[in-house]
Design a protein that fits this description.
Number of helices: 11
Strand content: 15-25%
CATH topology: Rossmann fold
Structural class: alpha/beta
Number of strands: 9
Helix content: 40-55%
Strand order of the largest sheet: 4-3-2-5-6-9-8
CATH superfamily: Vaccinia Virus protein VP39
CATH architecture: 3-Layer(aba) Sandwich
Order of helices and strands: EHHHEHEHEEHEHEHEHHHE
Radius of gyration: 18 Å
Length: 267
């Protein structure tokens, strides 16, 4: 597992409390994960998320995943855990405006130590967000603790791809993305199994490279002004961001980074 100790929770909180979150939403929408609604639908189908169930979203951001689950999978209740108050506040506002606030609760807490009850949920959910958590061991253990017997842990995440990252490549990418650590598919599988879970699916979605192409095309061909505005019309900063996005595109096309999809069941 690659780690970058210069990035911590405060850095992640700063990203999602300011213009960087708005920049990601500009090209990815409220569902700030690769594949948007299609990815969510596929994960929910694979995990057999049913109506009337109760779930918890670890690293829920503004709660777009929870609103999807309540609206499209008819989940009865969702609890979202995130360590950044700014996104929780925005999430409450958005859930209220969509008429879903009575079925969605937001909790300000560490996703590795949520304080929620043992075995309190039918499923644990995450979408492209666990890459922001330094201690993957504690995070997966928390997910397993929260799931009821027979419950499901279902998540997608940005992972190290099959070609592998070199040390300098990992450092540069983690620094840009504000990721304190990045796991591989095999490492997530090992963590889930060590917490007593049976693997239902562990796979590369194959989406990363074409979607990075899409995001760069949107930046370059349509949203240049909007991106500049969010960056305070700082052309040098915009150029630096574009360079790092191009580097990420190279890594994705080389199979060095990927979006992983995981579903595991607790005994």
């Amino acid at each position: 597992m690659h780690t970058f100790s210069d990035v911590g929770l405060r850095d992640v909180q700063a990203v999602y409390s300011g213009p960087e979150r708005e920049l990601w939403e500009l090209v990815m929408g409220q569902q700030i994960h690769i594949g948007g609604l299609k990815s969510s639908m596929e994960l929910a189908e694979l995990a057999a998320i049913r109506s009337g169930t109760e779930g918890v979203d670890l690293c829920c951001c503004t709660g777009a995943g929870m609103r999807f689950l309540v609206r499209f999978r008819r989940v009865e209740q969702m609890v979202g855990v995130d360590a950044t108050e700014a996104v929780l506040s925005l999430g409450r506002t958005r859930s209220q405006s969509e008429g879903l606030a009575d079925r969605i609760t937001f909790v300000l807490a560490d996703a590795c130590a949520s304080g929620l009850p043992d075995a309190g949920f039918d499923f644990v959910w995450g979408e492209d967000a666990w890459c922001y958590v330094a201690d993957k061991d504690r995070l997966v253990a928390e997910a397993a603790r929260l799931a009821r017997p027979g419950g499901v842990i279902a998540f997608t995440d940005w992972i190290e791809g099959p070609a592998g990252l070199g040390p300098s490549e990992a450092t540069r990418w983690l620094r840009f993305m504000k990721f304190p650590s990045i796991a591989s598919q095999q490492e997530y599988v090992a963590l889930l199994e060590s917490n007593g879970c049976r693997i239902v699916a562990a796979e590369d979605t194959g989406r990363f490279a074409p979607y990075v192409d899409l995001y760069l095309n949107l930046f370059n061909m349509q949203f240049s002004y909007d991106a500049l505005r969010l960056l305070g019309f700082d052309a040098s900063l915009m150029h630096a961001v574009a360079e790092e996005m191009e580097f990420m595109r190279e890594l994705a096309h080389a199979g060095k980074i990927a979006q992983g999809r995981f579903v595991a069941r607790k005994p």
